[in-house]
Amino acid sequence: MAAPPLPGPLAHLAPLLGHYGYWAVGAVVLVEDFGVPAPGETILLAAGVYAGTGRLNVVAVAVIAFAAAVVGDNIGYGIGRLGGRPFVHRWGRYVFLTPKRFQAAEEFFGRHGGKIVTVARFIEGLRQANGIIAGTTGMHWRRFLAFNALGAALWVGLWTTLAYLVGSHITAVDDEISRYQLYVLVAAGVLIAALVVRHLLLRRRRREA
Hints:
With 209 residues, this protein is an all-alpha fold. It contains nine helices and no strands. It is globular, with a radius of gyration of 20 Å.
């Protein structure tokens, strides 16, 4: 079965996937996971779609992406552990990891402990800095490895499976998403506004009390 044209942000990855296949998946996920700005999640979705149409093997995509994610984060852990904060502050800005962003991420990491290593896989920004922060904060490597492997398995499993199931229907799915996108954005805006108003009212009541 011929692979359908990839829509939206997936489209620019079609030549890369078509030419390098599994190598592209492994390389992009690997470099993203030790801090280099790269479309790791996007290429995983695109590879899953290709697997759903028979262009790639879904098991091979998942195994390669999982291995690349774990290795990439461990490289990041090594960078954080050996280089520490001075290294990150000096070179981080070249990969958009400014001292301010790094400090905010590190504080968030510190508040939530080891479980954030698993959850961080699904959070843009933390996914790229996850290993580096774990290294700079001195988390034990075995503990980091366990949480990191769990997060990688969940992340790869979720996006690969969803993209694989969509497969050749990706264009129709994208059309449906685009059709209702405005309604979703309006609903999200209303919800956010309601939460802000509720927060302000509660704060006002506390002050009056």
